[in-house]
Every structure is written in structure tokens, then in C-alpha cells.
Design goal:
CATH superfamily of the largest domain in chain A: P-loop containing nucleotide triphosphate hydrolases
CATH superfamily of the largest domain in chain B: MetI-like
Number of strands of chain A: 11
Shape of chain A: globular
Order of helices and strands of chain B: HHHHHHHHHHHHHH
CATH architecture of the largest domain in chain B: Orthogonal Bundle
Number of domains of chain B: 2
Largest sheet of chain B: none
Oligomer: heterodimer
Number of helices of chain B: 14
Strand content of chain A: 15-25%
CATH architecture of the largest domain in chain A: 3-Layer(aba) Sandwich
Distance between the termini of chain A: 30 Å
Distance between the termini of chain B: 32 Å
Radius of gyration of chain A: 19 Å
CATH topology of the largest domain in chain A: Rossmann fold
Strand order of the largest sheet of chain A: 7-8-9-3-10-11
Largest interface: A-B, 34 and 21 residues
Structural class of chain B: mainly alpha
Largest sheet of chain A: 6 strands, mixed
Helix content of chain B: over 70%
Chain lengths: 275, 315
């Protein structure tokens, strides 16, 4: 198993006391594509970031089990964590406008990631960056490598981000809403690219999204999160057989062209879901 | 410039009396007034002033009876020397302290640094200067007293650059060098502490902002070392704003730390400006103010040029 997580809780101190953001999440991930769906604040992003221990320092994390490929993340040293981050697991963030360093060229950011793990010369790193850029299907690699993030479109930026995280050949890729900031047509391209790379390299993928149908098309399994818990876990094909009223409610609210509804229903939230 | 000029001319002090004293006979007063051109209308006076200025003539100081240009050449190096040493020390100490405080935000280290900065910022500088003199000069005797050099060394070193430390090095006069350095230490230290407090505070605020950026998470997710994340990624992004802060702080020091120069009897531009002002020596005040304004402009220009080097988004 790449990731084992049992009873993960994450809390943040607030002036009103501890605020429980994640309340007992358990999941496992092997060499497969796991989708995590949920609304804003459901705890999906921070659950995933806890695997790489990339939460803000004030976050209080507890878990019965939290392991990456057998390594206990709760007790791992910072040195061990750095060996996991980048080298064995990559993280793709939502908006390349903010997640790429604005004062470094795309090429040098990719080269930096490559060099950090592979310890080659500067020239080798620059060459590797160009090669990685072509792997994410960028045609004009030299121009893109020399460009600063503000000179790239959103789709280009996200390709650069993917290339950067693939540089050290990781076993796990965590993609935190990788397409939310992109146009619909570009979204499909980026997803197809990720799918291609993940299956070709035999990596595990954790895809975090708030787009339930998209994730279920794309992933082998889908975990639905609500208010800090996983309320339902489904195989990709079983979406229509979802049992939890929250999942059902989400699906009901989707407009479709094949069965148009005059008015979309509004989800009635049951306080019992929070329990 | 016009404003400074007008303020100087409408001040209720008669410059003629300031020169020849208030017991001079009436006809002497009239003669001097005509000699100085003060009988003509204001706009003519201003025109003459600008004309002379364009020829590099700032007029003559009535106090020192040298030309103002000569005076500034004599006093300004002392200020440059003091301000440069102060800003270098302040930057070398303040920037790392600010970064450290931001990285350890909320810890005891952070609180300590913030108290240190608060003190540097809120204690009036004349008090700081006096306490420094009292402790290091009067009580401990570690530092020499006020002034730029001991009487024994005064005028020993030929003037080349006007910076006493550099001039003594050029002359291979180690005793003079140590003496100049020792005299420099206290006023520069007080100014450095004061500037350091401001620089560290600004650095801390900028860094907190940068460390919260998404690209910092990206950099950490790449498995980079903490040092590289902090200095290459976060600090690299605040360098632009920091340069502006440093340039303006330096400009503030160059325009003459009037109070500090007075307490330490440092013969710099600040002191020249103060004494000239108190003696109604308007040519000197105007000239010194002009130089200060020019420096502000030059440093601002330099900071803008640095923007282009440090931030690719500025084209």
C-alpha cells in the first residue's frame, strides 16, 4: 500500500477553541486512481496534505495509522519527510498563477526539482527540464522553459507544474483540484495528460476535486467527504448506486441535457450527517 | 526648490542683521542689502539664484564665509561615512533577524526580536545616543568621546576622499584609522540600531506574507531544504520590496541624522544644516536642502532600477 490512513484527525486552534477540520478519516491507496470529492471545507485538501506533512505548523494532527509505503509519517524526521516529498510523492496545486514561483523561470523551477533529487550538473538539469516539458506535451519547450509564470496561460502553467512534480519519478501524485482554475476545454486536456502519465508510469494518483462526475469518470474509486469525514466510498461505476443522502443530493442537483429538469432541486442538509 | 527658497526669504529674520550684527549703522545695512541683492523683487532674486545654481554655484555661506559648495564638500563625507556604516550594519543584522522572526513566528525568538525592534523604534534617538555615551564612554570607557577624531589626530591625515577611515588607510596611518573607526562606532551603532529596528520589522512583515504563499508549499512539496525554501523562494520574492525600504532608510540617514550628529558632535550635513538654520544662513540651508533632495531622488531611481533586475514582472 502506498498510503494507509486510519482515523486521521486534524484540528486548528481558533480563539473559540480547537476547530476540528478532519474528524476520523480512513483510506488506503495503492497503485490506483483514487478520487476524493467534497465541498469547500470538507477537509479533503488538508487530509491529502497531511500525508506529506505540509500543513501549517499550528495544525494538530492525530491518527491511529498514517503511513507512506510503510514509513510512519507521524514519527518520521524532517529528513525522512524530505526524502518522501518530491522524490516519492508529488503535489499539484490548484492555480499555477499562485503555486509557481513568480520570479523564477518555468525551466529553472523544473530543473531545481530534478536537481534536488538526481544531483546532476546544471546543464543536465536544464536538459532534463526540456525533456520533461516535452513529456507534458509542450511543443515549444525552449520558449516555455525561458518564460516566467506570468507569461504562461493557466493550462501551460499547470503542465509546467506537472512536469516539475514528475521530475524525480514519484510513486504517488496528489493533485489538489488541478483543473479548477482552468477553462473547460483545457481541463479535459490536463486530465487526459495526467491519466496518461499516471498509467504509463504506474503511479498512484489521489485526485481531489469538487466535481463528482468528472472524478468518477477518471478514477478507479471515489471517496465522498463531508464535514471532515468520508461519508461514502464507491467504485467508479457505482456512482448511480450511491447510498448516502449527501452523495445522492449532489447528483440530483446536477443539470443534464438528456433529462432536463425545469428547476434544479436544492439539497436539504440533514444535521445528522455531521454526527 | 522654489518652496525652500521662498521659506528662506519670507522668514522674519533679516539676513543683513545676521551678518553685520544689530548695532551697525543704517547706511552700512543699506549697502550690504544692495550687495546681497536683497533690495530687488523676489522673482529677480530667485532668477539669479537659479542662474547661479545652473553654473554650480550655491552662493556663499555667511557663517563660514566659504562657498556653500565647499562647505558641503567638507561636511557631507562625514555624513556619508556615518550613514553608510550604519545602513550596512543595520541591513546585515536587521534582515536576518526579520527573516528569523517570520520563520519562527509566534515563538519566543520572535517575541524577543519584536521587543528588540519595538525598543529601537520607540526610544527617542537622542536618548539612545545619550545613554550610549553615558555607558560606553563615561562609565565603561570602551569608546572615545564625541567628535570624529581625537585632538591628537586632528588634521594629520591628508584629505583625499573626505572619509576619515578611507583617507587614513590611503595614508597607511593605522593609528588614525583605528581612532577614526572608534569614533565612528558609537554614532553609527546608535543609527544602525534605530534603522535595524525598522528594517527587521518590515522584513518580518514581508516574509510572513511570502511564507503564506502557495509557491512556498510547492517548493516544500518538491522536497527542497528549509533553507532553500526560505531564502531562494520566499526571500527572493520579497527582495524587491526590501530594496525600496533599504533605499529610503539610507536616504533618511544621508539627509543628516541631525539629532545623532548633534549629540556626538559629528561634523556632518545634519549639523551643518542645523547650525546654518539657527544662524539664518539661507544660502547654506538652501544648498544643503537641495543636496538632500537630490539624494532622495537618486536613491529612489536606483531602487526602481533594482526592481527591474529583481522582478521579471516589471518590464
Amino acid at each position: 500500500m502506498l498510503v494507509e490512513m486510519q482515523n486521521l484527525t486534524i484540528a486548528f486552534p481558533t480563539p473559540q477553541g480547537m476547530s476540528q477540520a478532519v474528524r476520523g478519516v480512513s483510506m488506503t491507496l495503492g497503485q490506483e486512481k483514487l478520487g476524493i470529492v467534497g465541498e469547500s471545507g470538507s477537509g479533503k485538501s488538508i487530509s491529502a496534505r497531511a500525508i506529506l506533512r505540509l500543513l501549517p505548523p499550528q495544525a494538530v494532527v492525530t491518527a491511529d495509522v498514517l503511513r507512506f509505503d510503510g514509513i510512519d509519517i507521524k514519527t518520521a524526521s524532517e529528513r525522512q519527510m524530505r526524502a518522501i516529498r518530491g522524490r516519492r510523492a508529488g503535489l499539484i496545486l490548484q492555480d499555477p498563477k499562485y503555486s509557481l514561483n513568480p520570479i523564477m523561470t518555468a525551466g529553472s523551477q523544473i530543473a531545481e526539482a530534478w536537481r534536488n533529487q538526481k544531483k546532476g550538473s546544471r546543464r543536465e538539469a536544464a536538459e532534463a527540464a526540456l525533456d520533461l516539458l516535452s513529456q507534458v506535451q509542450i511543443r515549444d519547450v525552449r520558449r516555455v522553459a525561458a518564460a516566467y509564470p506570468h507569461e504562461l496561460s493557466g493550462g501551460m502553467g499547470q503542465r509546467v507544474m506537472i512536469a516539475m512534480m514528475l521530475a524525480p519519478d514519484p510513486e504517488l501524485l496528489i493533485a489538489d483540484e488541478p483543473t479548477s482554475a482552468l477553462d473547460a476545454t483545457v481541463q479535459a486536456e490536463i486530465l487526459r495528460l495526467m491519466e496518461d502519465l499516471v498509467s504509463r508510469r504506474g503511479m498512484g494518483l489521489m485526485l481531489i476535486s469538487h466535481d463528482l462526475p468528472l472524478v468518477s469518470h477518471f478514477c478507479d474509486r471515489v471517496a465522498v467527504m463531508y464535514a471532515g469525514r468520508v461519508v461514502e466510498e464507491l467504485g467508479a461505476g457505482e456512482l448511480l448506486h450511491a447510498k448516502h443522502p449527501y452523495t445522492r443530493g449532489l447528483l440530483e442537483c446536477l443539470p443534464t441535457l438528456s433529462h432536463p429538469k425545469l428547476r434544479l432541486p436544492v439539497m436539504a442538509r440533514d444535521p445528522a450527517w455531521l454526527a | 526648490m522654489l518652496v525652500t527658497f521662498l521659506i528662506g526669504r519670507v522668514m522674519p529674520i533679516d539676513p543683513v542683521i545676521a551678518i553685520i550684527g544689530d548695532h551697525a549703522p543704517e547706511d552700512v545695512v543699506q549697502r550690504v542689502r544692495v550687495e546681497l541683492g536683497l533690495d530687488r523683487p523676489l522673482y529677480v532674486q530667485f532668477g539669479i539664484y537659479v542662474w547661479q545654481l545652473l553654473h554650480g554655484d550655491l552662493g556663499r555661506s555667511v557663517m563660514t564665509s566659504n562657498t556653500v559648495v565647499e562647505d558641503i564638500q567638507r561636511y557631507f563625507p562625514a555624513t556619508i561615512e556615518l550613514a553608510t556604516v550604519a545602513i550596512i550594519v543595520a541591513t546585515l543584522v536587521g534582515v536576518p533577524l526579520g527573516v528569523l522572526a517570520a520563520v519562527r513566528a509566534g515563538s519566543k525568538t520572535d517575541v524577543g526580536i519584536r521587543i528588540l525592534c519595538l525598543a529601537g523604534h520607540s526610544i527617542p534617538i537622542f536618548l539612545l545616543a545619550l545613554i550610549s555615551l553615558l555607558v560606553f564612554y563615561a562609565n565603561l570607557g570602551w569608546a572615545p568621546g564625541p567628535g570624529r577624531a581625537d585632538v591628537a589626530f586632528e588634521g594629520l591625515v591628508p584629505v583625499v576622499t573626505g572619509f576619515l577611515t578611507i583617507d587614513s588607510l590611503i595614508a597607511w596611518d593605522w593609528d588614525s584609522f583605528y581612532d577614526a573607526l572608534a569614533h565612528l562606532a558609537q554614532p553609527a551603532g546608535v543609527l544602525a540600531y534605530f534603522s535595524m529596528a525598522y528594517i527587521a520589522r518590515m522584513t518580518r512583515a514581508f516574509m510572513l506574507d511570502a511564507l503564506a504563499g502557495e509557491y512556498v508549499i510547492t517548493a516544500r512539496a518538491k522536497g527542497l531544504s528549509q533553507l532553500r525554501v526560505i531564502w531562494r523562494h520566499a526571500f527572493g520574492n520579497i527582495a524587491v520590496r526590501l530594496v525600496t525600504v533599504l533605499a529610503l532608510t539610507y536616504a533618511g540617514l544621508l539627509e543628516g541624522a541631525v539629532v545623532t550628529e548633534t549629540v556626538f558632535s559629528w561634523p556632518g550635513l545634519g549639523q551643518y544644516l542645523t547650525v546654518s538654520l539657527l544662524n539664518a544662513d539661507m544660502n547654506a540651508v538652501l544648498g544643503a536642502t537641495l543636496v538632500v533632495g537630490l539624494i532622495y531622488m537618486a536613491l529612489n531611481l536606483l531602487a526602481d532600477a533594482a526592481y527591474k533586475l529583481l522582478d521579471p514582472r516589471v518590464s
